[in-house]
Structure formats: structure tokens, C-alpha cells
Design a protein that fits this description.
The chain is of the alpha+beta class. The chain has helices spanning about 10-20, 30-60, 65-90, 95-140, 150-160, 165-170, 185-200, 260-270, and strands spanning about 145-150, 170-175, 180-185, 210-220, 220-230, 275-280, 285-290. Helix 2 (about 30-60) runs antiparallel to helix 4 and helix 5 (about 150-160) crosses helix 7 (about 185-200). The protein binds adenosine-5'-triphosphate and magnesium ion (MG). Adenosine-5'-triphosphate (ATP) binds near residues 194, 198, 228, 241 and 246.
Length: about 300
């Protein structure tokens, strides 16, 4: 893991410095060529990332407006079919036509509304998914204000904002003394909001929920963990939870879009930090995020 304050330029100076002491002069051109190649590769990755970021934004943003039309016109279609049903009911057909009228009424009163409801619920699901993608894209593009973060105050404020959910879940939330770090207050708060929110949401129903937040300094990073005694995650799914839209129990009783942890990972990436997870199904999970201990420049 590269130190947060070590820029490409500093690294280059360091390698050249090393070279002066221990590497033969004849190796310099080769070393410099390798450094140049690395820098070019880094630029290419950054360009491609920015391009993907733009696609993500355009796709998630622009695909939402046709959905509004589909939703609106589907609802209107439902109303029209109700009106036609009323007109048909007002008719007094002779015996031969009565059966055909009843068949048409059954289409208008049952089959069409069922289809319309299906379209509307799928469109609103798609709208939610696109909204999630848009949120991920916005998080990635957001300019950060990097400053020293009093993590005790930050986590206290996140826990405070969840008072209602904590009370409803009758959960016990404890927070250890946390080391400070550097980062964007809003984004880091959002990451902890998602982690603590998940710990409450995926609690085990057969025991009282206990959530513990702790952290310690590890080299140039501070690693913070949220531990719960909830339902846990099986080994085969542990790495997948950071993927967008992945949910262990997709159609299960607990609602969600599978977006929260992707946002946490995005926030860690923006801070050049990392996320990790240790979990045991039926026992509980420890979600961790490492953030820079010292100040750093965004995108440097
Ligand atoms: N603390 C936890 N304990 C057990 N499973 C968890 C925990 N946190 C996350 N998960 C699993 O990881 C999946 C992804 O979590 P994530 O927060 O990304 O999405 P979500 O909670 O389903 O929806 P949302 O977008 O509303 O956050 C969840 O659906 C759940 O299966
Ligand atoms: Mg979540």
C-alpha cells in the first residue's frame, strides 16, 4: 500500500537517490525508461477511469428520464382501460354478445391492470437501480475537502443520526477511543452511516444486536472497524459484497439495493484507503476501512 503523502515525483526522487548510492550508472537509462513506462501506464488508467466515470454518469442520469415517461404513460394506459371497462359495462348487449363483453371486461379489469402493475413495479426498480448507480458516480466525482477528522466526533454524529433505528433495533452501540485521520467529513460520515446502518439492518433476530466501533493507527493509515454480531456472511460471498447490486439474499425480506458498500469502497478509494471484511455466517461481521493518518492531495 503506497503511503498517502508519497507522490509519484517523491518516489522517483527516492529511486534515483537509491540508484546513485547502489545502482551502477549503466542501469540509469533502463531505470528511467521503466519509470516513464509506469507513469504512462498510470496516466492511461486514470484517463480510462475518468472515461468510465463519465459513461456511468451519463448512463445512470440519462436513462432515468425515459423511465418517467414509461411510468406516466403506463399509469394512463391503466386509467384508459378502466374507462373502457366502464363504457362496456354500461352497454346492454344481446345474449350472443354478452359472453364476448365479459371476456373483454376480464381483460380490462384483471389482466391489463396486472400487466400495468408489473411494468410500474419493474420500472420503479430500474429507477432505484439507476439512482444507485448515479449516487456511486456522484460520490466518485465529488470534490473532497480534506481536513483533519476528529473521528470520535464524526462517529458520534453518525450514531446520533441513527438514534431512531438503534432504538427500534434495541441495539447496543459502543465506540472505543478512535485515532484521528484525514479526509472529507461528509464522505467519511456517509461511509460510516452505511456500515453502521448495515450492522443494524442485518442483525440476527435471535439475540440482542451489539455493535462495536474501534480503530487504530497502522503505519501511514488508520484502520477503523465496525463489528457486529449479526447474521454474518458465508465465505463464498465475502469478496462479492463490495460489488455493485450484489446482495446475499437478493429477494429476501430485508430491503436494499446492494449499493451501500460499493459507495463505502468508492469513498475509501477516493481517500487512497482500503476496505476489508471478515465474517462468519451466523456469528457476525467486521467491516473495516483504512483512511490516511496524514494530509494528502486528492488525485496526486
Ligand atoms: N453487517 C452485515 N451483516 C451481514 N450481511 C451484510 C452486512 N452488511 C452488508 N451485508 C450483505 O451485503 C450486501 C450488500 O450490502 P450493501 O450495503 O451494499 O447493500 P444493501 O444493504 O443490500 O442495500 P443499500 O443499497 O440500501 O445499502 C447486503 O445485501 C447483505 O447481504
Ligand atoms: Mg446497505
Amino acid at each position: 500500500m503506497k503511503g498517502p503523502s508519497e507522490s509519484q515525483e517523491e518516489l522517483r526522487e527516492k529511486i534515483i537517490g537509491l540508484g546513485e548510492k547502489s545502482i551502477r550508472k549503466s542501469h540509469y537509462p533502463e531505470l528511467l525508461r521503466r519509470i516513464r513506462e509506469l507513469e504512462e501506464a498510470k496516466e492511461l488508467v486514470e484517463r480510462k477511469n475518468a472515461e468510465l466515470e463519465r459513461y456511468l454518469y451519463v448512463a445512470s442520469h440519462d436513462l432515468r428520464s425515459p423511465l418517467v415517461n414509461i411510468q406516466g404513460f403506463s399509469a394512463r394506459f391503466g386509467r384508459f382501460s378502466e374507462e373502457i371497462a366502464r363504457e362496456l359495462e354500461a352497454m346492454r348487449p344481446d345474449e350472443a354478445d354478452a359472453a364476448r363483453r365479459d371476456a373483454a371486461l376480464s381483460l380490462l379489469r384483471e389482466k391489463i391492470p396486472r400487466s400495468v402493475a408489473f411494468i410500474v413495479s419493474n420500472v420503479s426498480k430500474m429507477d432505484r437501480l439507476l439512482g444507485g448507480l448515479l449516487e456511486i458516480s456522484r460520490t466518485g466525482r465529488l470534490a473532497m475537502t480534506i481536513r483533519p477528522l476528529d473521528m470520535n466526533a464524526l462517529v458520534a454524529s453518525v450514531v446520533g443520526s441513527k438514534s431512531w433505528e438503534i432504538e427500534q433495533a434495541q441495539a447496543k452501540v459502543s465506540v472505543a477511543e478512535l485515532p484521528p485521520c484525514h479526509g472529507d467529513w461528509e464522505l467519511v460520515s456517509r461511509a460510516f452511516g452505511n456500515l453502521i446502518g448495515n450492522a443494524l439492518k442485518y442483525r440476527a433476530m435471535d439475540r440482542a444486536a451489539e455493535i462495536f466501533v474501534y480503530g487504530r493507527k497502522e503505519g501511514p493509515y488508520c484502520r477503523y472497524s465496525v463489528r457486529d454480531n449479526g447474521i454474518g456472511i458465508s465465505g463464498r460471498n465475502v469478496d462479492r459484497v463490495w460489488e455493485v447490486f450484489f446482495r446475499v439474499d437478493g429477494d429476501g425480506p430485508i430491503s436494499g439495493d446492494g449499493v451501500g458498500l460499493s459507495i463505502v469502497k468508492r469513498i475509501a478509494d477516493k481517500h487512497r484507503g482500503e476496505v476489508s471484511l471478515e465474517s462468519h455466517e451466523g456469528v457476525g461481521s467486521v467491516f473495516s476501512i483504512s483512511l490516511p493518518a496524514d494530509s494528502f492531495e486528492e488525485g496526486a
